Amino acid sequence: MTNLKIRGERLWDSLMETARIGGTPDGGIRRLTLSEEDARVRAWFKEAVEAAGMTLSHDLFGNMFAIRPGKNNDLPPIAMGSHLDTQPTGGKFDGVLGVLAGLEVIRTLNDAGLETEAPLMVVNWTNEEGSRFSPAMLGSGGFAGVYSADQVNGRRDSEGISFGDALEAIGWRGDLPPKGQPIGAMFELHIEQGPILEAEGKDIGIVTGVQGLRWYEAVFEGRAAHTGSTPMSMRQNALLPAADLIRAVDAIGLAHAPDAVATVGHVTVSPNSNNVIPGEVRLTIDMRHPRDAVLAAMDAELQSAFARILAASGVSGALTPVSDVAAVAFDPDCIDAVRQATARMGLSAREIVSGAGHDAVHIARLAPTTMIFVPSAGGLSHNPAESTTFDECAAGAQVLLEAVLGYDRSRAEALREKETD
Amino acid sequence: MTNLKIRGERLWDSLMETARIGGTPDGGIRRLTLSEEDARVRAWFKEAVEAAGMTLSHDLFGNMFAIRPGKNNDLPPIAMGSHLDTQPTGGKFDGVLGVLAGLEVIRTLNDAGLETEAPLMVVNWTNEEGSRFSPAMLGSGGFAGVYSADQVNGRRDSEGISFGDALEAIGWRGDLPPKGQPIGAMFELHIEQGPILEAEGKDIGIVTGVQGLRWYEAVFEGRAAHTGSTPMSMRQNALLPAADLIRAVDAIGLAHAPDAVATVGHVTVSPNSNNVIPGEVRLTIDMRHPRDAVLAAMDAELQSAFARILAASGVSGALTPVSDVAAVAFDPDCIDAVRQATARMGLSAREIVSGAGHDAVHIARLAPTTMIFVPSAGGLSHNPAESTTFDECAAGAQVLLEAVLGYDRSRAEALREKETD
């Protein structure tokens, strides 16, 4: 047990200061990955970690690694962090809390002049959101070798700009290769982005894993023609099967509720003109479940629903998998470090499976990893109204500090025991 | 009967020359109203009509009037024309044929040194398409007093730019007020934009009227939230009722087929991100029928379908009428002038009701008006593949010449008879 206390005001001030970078009038943030706003928040982060005496490096995908040395710098650093990019209509806490809480932990240790056994690291993962470049968690996925460098760099936004060109343009392409930065463990503090903690009045979510996720792109291709002079019987309207698929996806989610979710979030109609029959429609599909077996069943239902809708539509089309992330179980020692921290602090906590994907999903392939959740008011996220209180943010950062120090201590003890054997 | 022959090559060359202004790689045209491309085609038109010895003026809405004097310039001019703007994915003939065929008629009369009784006029109406600024036929509607000047100038495109500002920006706002240019009659040559003439092997459509048209905007407002961590039971997904409405609109069209058509052509989803539940969806609805009574019944069906869908959806929403154009019967004398022209020329023709709205609909409120149709391959329009042959364009222009001269002669005779009474 330590008597170190993070400074909630300093954390909150950093949250509100960075919230102005890409800040929107409705109190949200629009800071799309690799945009000019992303470049500005990266510059802010660089200045802040260097002011905290850390050494910053970055890799091929623009992932940023800020390191504070420990007593034993042969040990791989214990990482804290998340992402600084946001949704087109994002809030002030999704991702940024995990990065800035890591920074606050470092600042607190600096104030106390306390040195950890292993080095500590604060990370900003590139393009977690996936709204400009699909799929989500692309930077951490590239780092973990889930995607090749070419796959990552080749992803294109809606204007046809590639991830590689956008990264080059803002000047954050580094030399570190995938897995080029050793990681001893990672603790990612994040808002729940769901309604459960608030509904149950819990302070902290001890995250034991992340549900599986599958993304798809569906396209229907009919024939654009004049709405007034093309008889109903002679149409190839791509929007009709799209409407059927939207309903079918929702039905699959409902059929496997309460644990399942299924959503069409993105729709592109072309030419998208009042008096032209839609010639082409593209949709994205997002399906998730904590158990891979159920997710596989949902996948099969989607395939057959799509085939049935396409056959009945009289237009052509295709359903393409874009992303497939298996359900993840986090590291027992990391989870235990969080559990002990909440117990020592006397906080109310519950174990929870994350409904959202996070960078921790990919990093868990490389190193012991877990997450810490704090409540989201109304379960709202990816929304300007996203809200977590001052006290909740501070409690989350304190748990992060305690968990990291606890993990660092117990690992050091384990090593010493080994040596004395 | 005249022996004047329009020059098909000259007309075709003008069509292909203007098709390069906003021309797209797939052979189509993207020349949105009041865009930089629109400014360029207006400059081309100004140069062409002045080279043909005509006097050009333009009104408050940017409608362009090019006049060739006649023997009796106290008579209001007989107008020919249509529009030079296109759909986002438009073809090479929709609108532009009617304007350039009018120009070809003037050039032919100039070559022959033939003077008409009444002055002749070639018109380019602003924003017929309605795809940048809804509703369609906005320029001719403003001229005819269907919309007030404030209504027209206040219409905004998807980026929030107003019609008035866009018109000012390209320098085509004139002083002529609504109805400020006298019109003795108007003949609008246009492609059918439907499959009927081609299917029946007819050269010419003698257009007796235009079907009624109603446009609406529907909006559904739910709550944007994270797709992964928001349980199905706690969602307010605006896309689900939108999907239902797309199907309901199609069903209304089918219920009144073959004469009815009903279409959702434009859909906007926000925030439109793969992992955000759609918080707001906007759709446009286009319904048409040759009989106003049936269109009124379709309107009632839409209202009740919308109310039913909204009530079942758990989100809020509204259905707003955007445009309501009654069915139109064209002028018997103008129709007869076209009928006689086709008969004299030995062309195969059939009477037809236009499925599409046209500027002629609004001008018919002010002056004797009709239209002449030529075939559209496959009935395709608002599509880069839109196609009408060299011979079909030439035949249409020749019918336009004959009809205008015939109408001019018979009206002059009628006047002389009056005087001699």
From TrEMBL, chains A, B:
Keywords: Hydrolase, Metal-binding, Zinc. The keyword Zinc applies. Gene3D superfamilies: 3.30.70.360, Zn peptidases. Residues 209-307 form the Peptidase M20 dimerisation domain. Its cofactor is Zn(2+). Binds 2 Zn(2+) ions per subunit. Zn(2+) 1 binds at residues 83, 94, 190. It comes from the Bacteria. Coiled coil: none annotated. Belongs to the peptidase M20 family. This is Zn-dependent hydrolase. The lineage of its organism: Bacteria, Pseudomonadati, Pseudomonadota, Alphaproteobacteria, Rhodobacterales.
